Amino acid sequence: MKKFLAYVKDYKKEMILAIICIEAETAFELIIPMIMADIIDVGIANEDRSFILLKGLQMVVCAVISLFLGNLCARFTAICGNGIGASIRAAEFQKMQTYSFSNTDKFSTPSLVTRLTSDVTTIQNSITNGIRPGFRSPVMLLVAIYLSFKINGALAVVFLIASPILGIVLFFIVKNVRPLYTKMQGAVDYVNRIIQENLAAIRVVKAYVREDYEITKFEEVNQNLKNNSEKAFSLAVLNMPAFQFVMYGTILSILWFGGNLVIIGNMKVGSLTSFLSYVLQVLNSLMMFSNVFLLFTRSLTSWKRITEVLEEEPTITDDLAKEIEIKSGSISFEHVFFKYKETAQEYVLSDISFDIKPGQTIGIIGPTGSAKSTLVQLIPRLYEATSGNISIDGHPIYEFTQKHLRDSIAMVLQKNTLFSGTVRENLLWGKEDATMEEIERACRIACVDEFIDRLDNGYDTELGQGGVNVSGGQKQRLCIARAILKAPKVLILDDSTSAVDTATEAKIKEGLAKELPGMTKIIVAQRITSIMDADQILILDDGKINAVGTHKTLLKDNEIYQDIYYSQQQGGNL
């Protein structure tokens, strides 16, 4: 709870004011039954109208003050609850930004979304709805019991019988409902996963006419959530009927025994009425406090899930970083091995060793699944090599800060991503303060200038989510332009011209060679035309380097390269 209290700290003032308002409100509410007893036993008994009016006015004043304090309490608890919720969400999101790919792989994306939204909302609502009864109920309970014993000690013994019964019921409910809440939140994760997958792949679903299949799949997880929610809430709502049963049983007992005391003259009617008011306050306090326990139980489940995100240690850190910069862009791999999980039996990459000189263009090719993308993702430390050493400018990459390393390396990933906003805003991700001249130069190299004028508003054209209103080839060229605008020392193109025709691809390669001669370029490709002019070509096969050479030497001596070349030539790609 220490971590949770750290978020409460910023809203300590509102929390204290809310508690003060709650206790003051409770005090005024507790006075009202005493005033009512005086009205009955003194005012009505003596037929003193002025006394009755005076006491009635006191009751109204107490009620109005109580109402005012209740409104203030609601305002302060809302500020406190929503503020703490916002702080937790911000902390989670900030923590997620420190994750490496392996950290993100540990949690599913839908689960992270649920932990960032639904779980935080649960805690937020628990604070907003739980502070008032949580601090009001104990005070009202203790004071009401004290006053009840003061009015009639013998009659108040009923509480000693009712309270343990209520405590046992609450213990049973809380013990059994907590694991059900955990299952329910897990079911929310599954629902979010199906929704996210469906929306992200809606074009594929439509193209394959799989709407009915997706509906069935969603109904399964939706029904699972429904069933888990029903089990959890069906048990939780037993709280109310159980308390009502005990409450009405207690009231009947008090009316029975209290009525006999009134008949024999050992108790006044006003005292019995006042006693009943305190009984209702005690029982309502217990009921409210039990609801707080249920809120707290559900919050603990959500907080545990949030804590897992906050306590996840990034697998890639800057602990060994020094104040050095990348200047030339030479790269060296020395006996590098990599696997995604330590428990995995086989390595994805095995004994990778090669050198890239500054300004060279390196091509990487190989069969599908040969770990080409995985290899280049090790250079900017998107994943950490399991063993071996990767160096840039003679320094191990862990000696550079992640920020500087990734600022110096521009990478166009295999899956191109554009964000909502204008074309210009997307390009400025490469360089926030880029001039129009720099933007146009980058777009010229990436051949974006061939289609930018055809867009509705040129650079100010609004792109849909993920760039849905531009073609695959246009999206790739925009991503390349964004990377070029970054002016990196190393440019990595991970199969990023696959949707571009060969003529346009040739122009992009020519522009990169002519305009950016000093930049180290690594091109991962499926087509030989994409890398045949490279200074070196690496052939990967099953996570190992099969051969290194130029287009001519590999075409002459390497069987894998020959197979790829001739199969593409027959397919009309060359």
Structure in words:
63% of the residues lie in helices and 10% in strands. The chain is of the alpha/beta class and 574 residues long. It has 2 domains: 2-190 and 231-311, ABC transporter type 1, transmembrane domain (ABC transporter transmembrane region fold, Up-down Bundle), CATH 1.20.1560.10; 331-570, 3-Layer(aba) Sandwich (Rossmann fold), CATH 3.40.50.300. It has a 6-stranded mixed sheet with strand order 6-9-10-3-11-12. A 4-stranded antiparallel sheet has the order 2-1-4-5, with no helix packed on it. A hairpin with a 2-residue loop joins strand 4 and strand 5 (395-396). Helix 2 (12-44) packs antiparallel against helix 12 (269-311). The model has no long low-confidence stretch (mean pLDDT 85). It is found in: Cell membrane. Keywords: ATP-binding, Cell membrane, Membrane, Nucleotide-binding, Transmembrane, Transmembrane helix, Transport. It is a multi-pass membrane protein. Residues 331-567 form the ABC transporter domain. InterPro entries: AAA+_ATPase, ABC1_TM_dom, ABC1_TM_sf, ABC_transporter-like_ATP-bd, ABC_transporter-like_CS, P-loop_NTPase, Type_1_exporter.
Ordered list of secondary-structure elements with their pairings:
Layout: H1 2-8, H2 12-44, H3 49-97, H4 101-106, H5 109-116, H6 118-151, H7 153-156, H8 158-200, H9 202-207, H10 211-236, H11 239-263, H12 269-311, E1 331-338, E2 349-356, E3 361-365, H13 372-377, E4 387-392, E5 395-396, H14 402-408, E6 409-412, E7 421-422, H15 423-427, H16 436-445, E8 462-463, H17 472-485, E9 490-494, H18 502-515, E10 520-524, E11 536-541, E12 544-549, H19 551-557, H20 559-570
Parallel strand pairs: 3-10, 3-11, 6-9, 9-10
Antiparallel strand pairs: 1-2, 1-4, 4-5, 7-8, 11-12
